[in-house]
Every structure is written in structure tokens, then in C-alpha cells.
Backbone:
């Protein structure tokens, strides 16, 4: 099963490169197919990243996500694959992808995948009271 | 009381072995019996783990859970027993099982059990603002 | 005011002594009396502990809690007293008792008390994404 | 504008001095006046502290809070002032006061102030799973 | 597109300079325009900061925010720009700005930007149970 | 089992007799005993009534409710009994008492009892959009 | 498949026969089996009734419900069957049974069944503002 | 105790007199004093009305409400009094005032008062599915 | 665009024909395409009906719903079309279909369609307090 | 102040004219200006209608709503004006517009306006249990 979708992902230059900041993108309408049964699967995706030189363009991300609609993928594999596509494109300082799949067989599955740029240090978080 | 259930648990190869990631499985429909009174007990289970070489197959997990339906188990013991079965099967880098039992006698009990692979280090978590 | 209640607390052997795990017990129906005015006070208790050799038996805990129904106690004192009774009985690796009292005079009071076994180290918590 | 209110605050001896524990007091009915316009302001206060030798008596705290009803105070100043009054009285090991003001001009303001006794160390918190 | 808005931001002296404390300001009614399409965008802003010598005056902040109503800005850029304006004005010990944009194309975007005064140390946070 | 409590209920003259209006009183802290087992029962009461000549005085109602604390009553009976006491005292145009008992044996029970003054007509309710 | 369970249902005399009132019983822990696949089904039941001469005894109701645990039943049929058993036993003025089944195949099913005693009139409900 | 407040209430002409429509005004910041004890009381008011010739001006309503801040009033009386002031001023086709008082003595009280213009008929409400 | 899907819908005989009762089916995972743009649309469907001679079989309903996945339909049209298919198949005494579409262009649309068997009378609903 | 906005509203033919059904459109992003102060106002609109010959086209509705962004309008007047525009365009069997304005001066205002086609009868609603 080939997915030319990732070539469609576009970027734009990070408008504030001198500062580490967070971009959080929630996508409640992800759907693909079960590779075993062909039945539809649904999930809510949450992408969080600290951009380096580029940010992902939202409209192209929406189109990229739509491409999974008619493809068969296992939960654990598809989450890591989207992660790999985004990391390859954005080369972010840090990225985390959470895929919260809808119930199947009375069971709710969530997969969370992270990537960290080698050498990047998470600044000590400031915890305000 | 013998439980041949654990033999039914099946695995599949971890599709992304080079990366530590989380699989979170919520099972709201666990039920067993009270070993003293024979009365039904109900719980919601939450399994979270970082896979190593294999992942648990969801359908076999569902069947494994169903096997407890007609068995008698104490809260603290059954939570640790399921944990031991899963750890023996998956040899995960890390696993946590939370069993939230429904009210009995006006009291709500939750049991949480964890396992860590010897030598595995939890990567410093990245806390994005 | 004497409270023979604590003698009624019973234990059973920890079924999984080789592993540090958490038992969390929520008791929404605690009531005692105000020692000044004799008026009823209500609270929700939350007991969390890491057992060592024994666990508290739930039915005896329920009866123990009922014994406070006709006794007069101040908020701060009764929370610490129940804590002392449980610690004396269970000798747990760690215990925390949270007593969330219902509103009096437009003010909501919560008291939280902890106990740690000398020498016991809280294992570095694993924070999964 | 003079506030003799703080003299009314009363204490009682900490009933469990050998243990660091938390007292949390929520006060949803705080009101004062805007010093510029004379218009009423409303806030919900949350006081959290670790007592040392004394605890604050709740009824006197209620009366102390009522005294602000006809006084003019800025958000940032009044939060710190109540904090200073409580710290002067209780000499607590630690205290935190959160004042969550109701919306004004479409904007919601919260002020959080903390005090720590010199030399007091926050015990490493135990984070149970 | 020029924005003279930032000159309107006003300050007042921090009323309690000897203590690090938090001011949290939630602004649910931010709106600007999409620079590509001219369509309105909406967001909820959350500003959190530890003041140094001055605090931001709320009424001027409200007016400053209103000035964005007829301007075109991208999500990532406008969040960092407001941050830069506030940091330039307040020179705070620490500041964090969270902009939670409303859904566009089925996608929800949030941008979080932080600033820390060189040399300022976040005091070890006290985590009360 | 005798209950002299109802004599303590006090009334005051209805301050606006020319108009049918509703008084709604929520009492989250009702407790009595199970007449079979002696175990405590807990409920939240909701009294709603349209007063005729008198209203119930709130402090006396609070004391009346406290009197049930050490008495044994079945759910269905005690709800109707409190209703009868209030109706006898207030002779209201209409009254409804809802008693929402806390879970017992995994079962939640609510009892709702109504009384209508003979000849009183419920004015056609105005349902605003 | 025979169900002797209904013989276990017990009643007690209605303690307040002169008044139409409501008894509402929520049972979150119903489980039976799918007659086709043998897989467990779960539901939350809500029984609401206006008693005539007798009320259902709660402990016997709990035991009656447990009897379905190892029986196979379709959603629509089992709801009406429980209804028929209760109506046969209680001969209530009115009864309604709502069975809210847990998700199967991404679909949530609820079945609601009612019974009205011939000749019984629902008193015009009083709708208080 | 005299209240000249009602004279301050102002009106403006109903901008759409040919149509019955609803105006709903929620006022979460009402406070007055208990006439017995002098202690502050707090309530959330909800005014709903169908205007006839005039509407109430919001700023004057805010000022009118502030005037109760230093006055003593019983719950049932003050709700009806505000109602009478508004009815006298607005002569609305219909009005309803709900006053939800904050907890006192563990008891929550709400008072609801309605007024209907003689001869005005509530149009049959359209209940859309 | 042809949809052979409706032929796949299957029925089973109503197991309790002598009684009017409600079957409520919630389907959170409906998706089709926008006929103008080809972009995916998502909706949550709620089907409620009173069966006559037959009920809809759930598995066939699930498959029927899946068939819309690759078809283009407008909101208002597709809701009425599914309604027409179900009414043609089930000939129910009453049916209602609610389709709650996910946000598009900042706007949330819901369409509700009903069908009533000629001559069927909705029994006067019993409104229990 | 002239508003040519209403000419932009477009319609399409009702796809199911033989049946009364409901279209519900929620618009959380309405904003206009206060005609007195020029300050922005925000509201969430809810339009519900039963179409006759035409339905409102969603994209044109979105653009129509945007036109209010730079116009000054009072709450009561703007709600009725949008209603009049929609009624003039759609000639619906029934329409209701609810405008829930955001807080101003601590006061939350909602305006609800309805229109009914002369001679149209709301079918008796079916209230399923």
C-alpha cells in the first residue's frame, strides 16, 4: 500500500527562531481502515512540537491526514509512521504525537510517540503556582 | 481455582522497535467474583506500557479479560496477577496496570501496579508548556 | 472521649510483597461531630498507601469509620488521628490521608497528612507521555 | 484606609506538631471595592499552608475576610496583604494564597502569592501512580 | 501593516517587590484576521507572569488586545509578537503566553511562548499533597 | 422509635402572600440508620414548595434534619414521613420532596413524594424559549 | 434457557399507600451474554415506578439482576422480559425500565419499556419554575 | 431600612415591539446582609422577561443591584422585592426572577418569583426535536 | 450517485409487539464527503424509534452506515435520505433521526427528521417527578 | 449605519419539502461593536428553523455574520434584526434565534427571538421516554 501523501506536507519558515516555543495541533477527525477486516477506524490526533527552522502548514496537514481515509493501518504502526513523516519534514527540536483511537471490542487504545533532536535540551520547565 | 486464560494472550512484533513509545489500553468492562461471597465485582482497567520486542494483540486481550468473569479474586491479588501475566508475556520496558473497582460498602478501591525492565531508564520526560 | 474503634481494624497479608504498588481507598461517607457545638460534620476521605507486610481489610475499615459518627473531633486533629491509627496498624511503606470537609460558614477545609517508613525511598516515578 | 481586621484573626495550637501536613481552605465569598471606581470586586480565595506551632481558627478567618467588604484594594496588593497578615500571625512552614478574581472588562485575573519559612525544606513529594 | 497598539500599554509599580508571585490573566475575547484570506480568527489568550518592577495595567491591556481586531496575523507570529511587546514593557522575571485558537478546517491550534529574565531562577516549586 | 423532632420545626409568615412563588431547599447532608442492620444511610434531600401562609425557618429545618441521625428508617418510609411533617406544618399550596440515597449493594435509590393543597391549581407554566 | 430468577424477587408493603409517589432505582452493573456469540454484554438499568400495594425489596432485586450474568439475551428482549417480571410481581400503577447498553461495533443502544395500570391516570405534573 | 435604589433603574424603548421575545439576564454577583446576624449573604440572580414597551438598561441594573450590598434582607423577601421593583418599572408581559443563594448551615436555598401581565397569553411554545 | 447500501439493512421480528417501547441507537462514527469540495464530513447520528413488526439488526445498520464513507452528500439531504431508507424498511410507529455534524467554517449544523405512522397516537407521556 | 450584508445571504431549495424537519445552526464566533462606547461585543448565536421552500446556504451565512464585525448594535436590536433578515429570506415555517452575549459589567445577557409562519401548526411533539 503506497502513500504519496507525505509529499504534500508543506512548511513555512518559523517566524520566531530565537525562542523555543510550543505549537499544539489537535485533529479530531482522523480515520483509516483496519488492515485485517477493512472496517473503518477513527482517532483523535494531538501533535505537539517545538519548531526549529520550519513549521508545518495547516492546510497541507489537513490534506495529508485525509489521505489515510482509504488506507489500511494498524494502530501502533500508523501513529509511528505519521510521526516519522512529520519528523522527516520538520526536523523539529521536539515532537510528540498522541493518537487516541475510538473503542473497538469494548477496548480504548491510545498510542503516544515522541522524537527529540539530538543535542536538544528541554529547558527546565517553569512551574508557576 | 485454575486459570488457563493467560495462555490465550497473543502478541505481535513491535512495529517500531527503535523508539520508546507508549501504548495505553482502557478496558471498562472487567468483572470477576468476590471469593468470599461469590458476589460479582466490577472494575475499569487501564494498562499502559512501553513495548520492547512485542505488543499485546487486542482481541486476545479481550478474551483473556473475559475469562475472569466466573472466577473468584480479591482486588489486590487479581490486579497483581494480571500484571504478572502481562509482564511474563510482553517483557515490556515498562508497564503499569490500574484497576478501579466499583463501590462496595460505600467504599471505592483502586489498585495500581507497576513493572520496570531491569536496566531500563525512563527518558527524562519533556514537559511542554 | 474514648475510641475503641481502632482495635476493630483488621489486616490481611499483602498478596504481592515483592513489588511496591498503590492501594487507593475513597470513603465519601465520613461523619463526626463538632466538639464545640455538637453539630454534625461531613467529609470525604481518601486513603492512599503502599503496603508492606499487610493490607487493611475493607469491611473492618468501614466499621472503623462508622465509629466516628457519634464522636466530637476537630478537622485537623481527626485527620491526623485516623492517620496514626492506620500507620500503627499497617506499618505501610507510605501512606497519605486526605480529608475534604464539607462547607461550614462559607469555608471549605481540606486536611492532608502523610507518613513515610524510615528508609523507604519513593521509586523515581515513571511519567509516560 | 485603615484595616484593624487582622487583629481579629485567632489561632489554636497545631494538634500534630511532629508531622508536616497540609491545611487547605477555600473561601468562595470574598468581596472588596475597586479603589478607583468604588465598584465591587469579587474573588474566590484558596489558602494552603503547612502549619508550624499554630493553625488559624476558621471562624475568625471568616470574620477577617468579611472586613474587606467595604474597603478599596487593588487585586495584586490585596492578595499580598492578606498573605502578609496570615504569615505574620501563623509563621507557617509554608503558605500559598490564590485569589481568583471575577471577570472585569472581559478579563479574568488571578494572583498567587507564596511564603516559605527560612530553612524549611519541602520534603521530596511522593508521587503515587 | 503597522500596529501602534503597543504604545498604549501602561504599567503600575509592583506593590510587593520583595516576593516572587504570579499574576495570571485570561482573555477569552481575542480576535484578528487571517492575513491570507481576510477571514476572522478567534483565540483565548492566557498570560502568566512573575512581575519585577512593574505590572501591566488591565484596562490598557484590554485596549491593546482590541487593536488586533482589524489586523492580519498568522497564529505563530502573533503569539510571539504579543509576547515580545509584553516582555519589552514589563521586563518580567518570567512570562508565558498561551494562545488557544478556535477550530479552522477541523483543526485546533494552540501556541505557547515563554520568556525568562536572564539570571532569574525559578524557585523550587512547593508541591503540597 | 419516637421522633420529637417535628415539634422543633418553626415557621415565619410568608412575606409575599399575594403571589405564588417557589422556594427550593437543597440539603446534601442527610443521614439516618438502616433499621435492619443499624448501618448508616446517606441521602441528599431537595425540598421544593409554594408557600401559603407560612414558610419554614431554615435553622429549625437544619436541626430537624439532624434529629434523624440516630434513628432507623427505610428509604421509602422516611421520605414520606418528612413530607408529612412538612405538610402538616406548612400547609403549603404545593410541596415536593426528593431523597436521593447513596449507593448500597451497587444500587442507587431515589424517592420522590408530592403534596398538593386541595383546590390549588398549578398556574399554567410559562415556558420561555 | 430457563430463568428461575424471578421467583427470588421479594416485596414489602408500600409504607404510604394513600399517595402516588416515585421510586427510582439505578443499577449500573447489569451484565448478560450475547446469545449469538456468547460474548458478555453490559448495561446500566434504570427502574422508575409508582408503587401500588407493594414495593420491590432491594436485596432481592440485586440477586435477581445477578442471575442474568450467565444467560444469553438480546437487548430488546431482555429489557422487556425484566419489565414483565417486575410488572407481574409489583402490579405497579406505573413502571418504566431503561436499559442503556455499552458500545458494541461503535454503536450505543438503549431500550426503554413502560407499563401503565389500566385506569391509572398520571396526575397532571406540577412544573415549578 | 430605606432603599432609594429603585429610582435609579432606567429603561430604553423596546426596539422590536411587534414581537414577543425573551431577554435573559444573569447576575452572578449579588450580595446583601442577613438582617438577623449582619453576616453577608451571596446569590446568583437570573432575570428573564418578555418586554412590552420598555427594556431595562443594563448599567442602571448593575448599579441598582450594588445598592443591596449594605442592606439587610431575608431571602424570600428580597427576591420578591426586586421582582416588584422591576415589574413596577418595566410593566413587562412576563417576568421571572430566580435567586440562588449560596450555602448557609449546609443548606442551599433558591427562590423563584414570577409576574404575568393581566390578559397576556403565553404563546404555545414550539418544541423543536 | 447510486447507493445500494439500503438493501443490506436487515431486520428481526419485534420480540414484544404488544407494547409500545423505544429503541435508541447512537452512532458516533458517521462520515461522508462534501459533494462540492470532496472534503470529508463527520457526524454523530442518533436514531430513536418505536418498532412495529420489526427491529433493525445492528450489524447490518453498522455496515449500511459505512457505505456512506465514500459518497458525496449535503447535510440536509443525507439526513432525510437515511430516514427514508429506515422508514421504508422498518415501517416503525415513530422514528426520529438526529445528525449532529462536526464544525465547518466555525459553524455547527444539526439536522433532525421525524416520521410518524399514519394513525399512530403518541401515548400521553408519563412525567414522573 | 447601513448594512448591505443581508443581500449576501443565499439559499438552496429544501431537499425534502414533504416533511417538517429541524435545522439547527450554532455560530460561536459572532462579534459586533457597542454603539455607545465602540467597544467589541461577543456572542454565540443559535439559529433553529423548520424550512419551507428554501434553506440558508452555510457559507453565505458565515459571510453575513462576519459583516457585523465592524458595526455598532445594541443586544436586543441586533438579535431581532438578524432574525428579520433571515425570516425575510427564508420564509421558514418556524425560526428561533438565540444570542448569548458574553459578560459585560458582571452581567450576562441572552436574547431569544421567534417567528412562526401564519397558519403553521407545530405538530404535537412526540416525547419518547
Residues:
Amino acid at each position: 500500500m503506497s502513500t504519496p501523501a507525505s509529499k504534500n506536507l508543506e512548511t513555512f519558515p518559523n517566524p520566531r527562531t530565537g525562542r523555543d516555543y510550543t505549537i499544539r495541533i489537535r485533529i479530531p477527525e482522523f480515520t483509516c481502515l483496519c488492515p485485517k477486516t477493512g472496517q473503518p477506524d477513527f482517532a483523535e490526533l494531538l501533535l505537539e512540537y517545538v519548531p526549529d527552522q520550519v513549521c508545518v502548514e495547516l492546510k497541507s496537514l489537513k490534506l495529508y491526514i485525509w489521505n489515510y481515509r482509504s488506507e489500511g493501518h494498524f494502530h501502533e504502526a500508523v501513529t509511528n509512521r505519521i510521526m516519522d513523516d512529520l519528523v522527516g519534514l520538520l526536523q523539529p527540536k521536539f515532537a510528540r504525537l498522541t493518537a487516541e483511537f475510538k473503542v473497538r471490542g469494548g477496548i480504548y487504545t491510545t498510542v503516544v510517540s515522541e522524537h527529540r533532536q539530538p543535542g536538544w535540551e528541554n529547558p527546565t520547565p517553569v512551574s508557576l503556582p
